[in-house]
Specification:
6-stranded mixed sheet, single chain, 4 helices, Aminopeptidase, alpha+beta
């Protein structure tokens, strides 16, 4: 795991992005994923989110001046060769303001010299390209969800 000190960066006028995982209570993180439609309270329990945040190598959050959690990103890294962004979630009202771009830069800065990968839906290709990423030819993503039937991929 990285021994880097937490980073804090302004993103726009009223948002601060931080890599200090202590600033992300599991209950608040779970509520954000549920609110944004990533899953239900059955999948995003407080305990599962606690384990997730604890076991991710990099956790980056975005908060507005009122202290509300408006974005969250999680990543895994070996801090030598590869870093994989698991997800970035941003409240819709805060999308398009450069917050996601700052979050991706913070992740990359915490794992310097590694190849940083992310997977996304086609609707987000423009955003990922604008962040400097290129599509890796020939890569296909496979998934097997733990204990759940895969309905649509």
């Amino acid at each position: 795991m990285s021994g880097a000190r937490p980073v804090s960066v302004k993103a726009g006028r009223d948002v601060t992005v931080s890599s200090d995982r202590r600033l992300v209570p599991p209950r608040e993180a779970a509520a954000l994923y549920i609110e944004l439609g990533w899953g239900t309270s059955r999948r995003y329990t407080v305990e599962r989110m606690r384990r997730s945040l604890r076991n991710c190598d990099i956790v980056v959050s975005a908060r507005n001046n009122a202290g509300e959690l408006v974005g969250l990103a999680r990543a895994l890294s070996d801090f030598a060769i590869e870093t994989k962004i698991l997800d970035i979630v941003i409240v819709p009202e805060y999308q398009g303001q450069g917050i996601g771009r700052v979050m991706m830069r913070v992740i990359a800065s915490l794992a310097p010299g590694t190849n940083v990968y992310c997977e996304t839906e086609p609707r987000n290709f423009g955003f990922v390209r604008a962040c400097g990423y290129v599509r890796r030819p020939g890569l296909t993503v496979f998934v097997k969800r733990g204990g759940e039937e895969i309905r649509r991929i």
